[in-house]
Every structure is written in C-alpha cells, then in structure tokens.
Write a structure and sequence with these properties.
With about 80 residues, the chain is of the alpha+beta class. The longest helix has 25 residues. The protein has a 3-stranded antiparallel β-sheet with strand order 1-2-3, with no helix packed on it. The chain is built from 1 helix and 3 strands. A hairpin with a 5-residue loop joins β2 and β3. It has one domain.
Length: about 80
C-alpha cells in the first residue's frame, strides 16, 4: 500500500508541474528575437554526395548553395581510384 501512496504523490507532483508549465506559456513576457533582414546575410544549404557504380570509380563531393540568391558558393568533386 505504501507504493500506491508514493505513486499517487508522484503523479500529483507531475500534474502540478505540467500545470505550471502550461500557465507559464500563457503569461510569458519574453520578446521574440529576430535576425535583421540584411541583403548581405545569406542562408546556406550544404549538401554532400557520393556514388559508385559496380566495378567503377568512387566519386564524391559537396556543394554550398546560398538559398537567398540561388548561387552556388562553393563546390568540390573528387574521384577515388579503386585499389587493385
């Protein structure tokens, strides 16, 4: 019976903490932070890739794309020879 009482107390504590968390989200006074919208600020997408056909060379590389302008900022491709 003691474990039943402990379980009830723990569940009540969890319920109270969840209620406090809910109320805190309604009464939050923090301001949102935003990044200034300069044209010089770029958002970048970095992608890496690799491919190998059967009995062929391994090719790998990457590219960096500025999503604000659509320009490729950097890219590289390498060919890796198979050792025989």
């Amino acid at each position: 019976m003691k474990t039943d009482r402990i379980t009830k107390v723990l569940l009540e504590i969890i319920a109270i903490l969840l209620f406090i968390n809910l109320m805190n989200s309604f009464f939050s006074s923090r301001q949102a932070l935003a990044v200034p919208g300069d044209k010089d600020t770029g958002r970048y997408q970095i992608s890496a890739w690799a491919v190998q056909a059967p009995d062929a060379e391994l090719r790998s590389g990457y590219y960096v794309l500025d999503t604000a302008t659509g320009m490729v900022v950097a890219s590289k491709m390498q060919v890796h020879r198979l050792k025989e």
